[in-house]
Amino acid sequence: MISKSQRYREILGVLTRHGIGIVDDEFIKHEAGDRARAEHLRQALDELGTMFIKLGQMLSTRGDLLPDAYRGELAKLQDEVSPLPADVIAAVIKEDLGAGPEQIFAFFDPRPLGSASIAQVHAARLSDGREVVIKVRKPGVDELVQIDLEILSGLIDRWSPRSPVLEQYDARGVLREFSDVLRAELDYSREAANVKFFREVFVHERGFTIPEVIDQYSRKRVLTEERVEGRKPSDLAGMAKRVRAIVSRRIARFVLETAFEHGVFYADPHSGNLLIQDDGSLSVIDFGKVGRLTPDARQRAADLFIAIARSDAQRLADRLIEITAPNHPIDRNLITREINRILEQYVDVSLENLRFGEAMSELLQLIRTHRLRLPGTMVQFFKALAMCEGILQAVDPDLSFPDYWSLHAYQASWPR
User: Fold this and answer.
1) CATH number of 80-228: 3.30.230.10, 3.30.200.20, 3.40.50.2000, 3.40.30.10?
2) What residue segments make up the domains of the chain, in order of their start?
3) Contacts for 314 with CB less than 8 Å, ≥ 6 apart
4) Theoretical Cys-Cys bridge with 275: which of 68, 103, 180, 230, CB 3.0 to 4.6 Å?
5) What is the pLDDT of residues 373-416, one digit of tens each?
6) pTM for the full model?
7) Could you give the residue numbers annotated as active site?
8) Based on the number of CB atoms within 10 Å of its own CB, is 340 exposed (0-12), middle (13-18) or buried (19 or more)?
9) Count of CB atoms situated within 10 Å of the CB of 79
């Protein structure tokens, strides 16, 4: 395992080579401009591995923090790596479960189903015949992430007094939020708890399937779950329109209902995690990314959606300013006028043609322009809704997404 001092020198070396850092109290500026700086930032994060790749992916969603050139470049970061040998994964399973996979499972496939920087996934079969998937955290990842977080925190502390932009956007606060999310993703006992929560919510709901966690073979670094399969939402072209309409409603319910009713939302609703059965049943996998909204945040989010539904620029401006809690003078009237322009562009009177994702993207840019900052959880929630909107449009183009979120938003806004 690399020492902290060795890793510190390695990180500084990569950042310096790509022109990232502070010289003479200013961030180094690449001579070719922002586009080149963005490309060098992506390359540096990619070279530095797990924690930095995850950081770049998070920043690529933060329209309130970064301009398009940076977010577009960071969105190219891929968390797919060459798999580790099966015997390395087997050693982790043995350490956590007390026996190797060949002793625990009736069958264990040494060829991985997938390999990312944090985990590797393998198929297996239990002695009772059930097909399962095993998610195994790669050895050394937790320790390296902890070292990297400590080093990055130290760099921010060192650079912030000389960099107004880091203070302006509360870099320390952004790193704290990111650290909490990443540490939760590293702990599979947390993910197991997430799966169980969603199973309990939908246990009596027809048409929803959440895989069962096999507790006997799950620990902090190993998660064993029932294997579910199905078609991706993008592969439903041959499915009857009536069934696709049912599918779209189930996806919308799954993402929205738990958020507004329980304050817990599924934060990763991409096509690979939502599997559709031939009868229109929805199966959901991978609960590593789950967000939580406090009762206050839930009500504030609901107020935002109600303001959008009513095209009420003044109310939307007031709610955004409350949520971002600026610590510097702002021009409330200018913000309201800009929000009114966005609403006129993306929201029609009937709400049938609301482009939620595009509207939120513009709102985040407005927030950045006025040097405001949204809480990370709120950005994560908006991103999940934008992803959901894209999937729903692919499944059922006739769906009116606001019909779903406006109903839940109104209910969440009621006094509790």
Assistant:
1) 3.30.200.20
2) 1-78, 80-228, 239-416
3) 336
4) 230
5) 888 899 899 889 888 888 888 888 877 666 666 555 555 554 44
6) 0.86
7) 268
8) middle
9) 14
Give phi and psi for 137, each to the nearest 5: -75, 135
**Tokens linked to 165:** 């932009």
Give the pLDDT confidence of 86-140 residue by residue, as tens digits.
999 999 999 999 999 999 999 999 999 999 889 999 999 999 999 999 999 999 9
Residue with tokens 């009868």: 279
Per-position b or e across 377-400, b if 16+ CB within 10 A of its CB: bbbbbbbbbbbbbbbbebbbeebe
Q: Tell me the backbone φ, ψ of residue 350, rounded to 5 degrees.
A: -85, -15
Q: What is the C-alpha to C-alpha distance for residues 343 and 364, in angstroms, rounded to an integer?
A: 13
Name the residue among 173, 162, 183 with its Cα closest to residue 65.
Answer: 173
Burial of 224 (0-12, 13-18, 19+ CB in 10 A): buried
Q: Are strands 264-266 and 208-209 parallel, antiparallel or unpaired?
A: unpaired
